[in-house]
Amino acid sequence: MPDWSDGGVLGHLGLNVADLGAARRYWAVLMPMLGFEPFLDDADQIAYRPADGKHGTYVFIYGALDGRPYSPDAVGLQHLAFMVRTRQAVHDVYRAALELGSEAVHEPQVFPQYPQPYFAAFWRDPAGFTIEAVCHHDR
């Protein structure tokens, strides 16, 4: 197993949201489908880490102190992409996100403009972040 302690992987990513309670409920459903497990759940933050001891980026979600809404068109975060193992997983998490009230951006499909194989779906979460589930396999 590689030793990532000397770098080579993004350690963690922090996101501010207007409604931490809504984010907590939303991500509790989707993160296990995306291969993440709970790491922290405090009054002012939640965090997820790659499941089953896998190496990778932790995701922290905080309640924003500034109430301005997020915009994917402004300077800052453009979107988050989560890699999943199968095309069926892309379908499953996309459907679950829509059932939770997410806005559809791109339904599950092959994106021929990207290096293949590239099968993905995009949606907006309750905070307005564009989320992608992508499978880089033909399965």
CATH secondary-structure class: Alpha Beta
CATH superfamily, by name, is 2,3-Dihydroxybiphenyl 1,2-Dioxygenase, domain 1
Mean pLDDT: 93
Task: Name the beta content range.
Answer: 35-45%
The dominant shape is globular
The helix/strand class is alpha/beta
Across the major sheet, the strand order is 1-4-3-2
What does this structure look like?
The two termini are 25 Å apart. This protein has 139 residues and is an alpha/beta fold. 19% of the residues lie in helices and 35% in strands. The strands form two sheets. Strands 1-4-3-2 form a four-stranded mixed sheet, covered by helices on one side. A four-stranded mixed sheet has the order 5-8-7-6, covered by helices on one side. The model has no long low-confidence stretch (mean pLDDT 93).
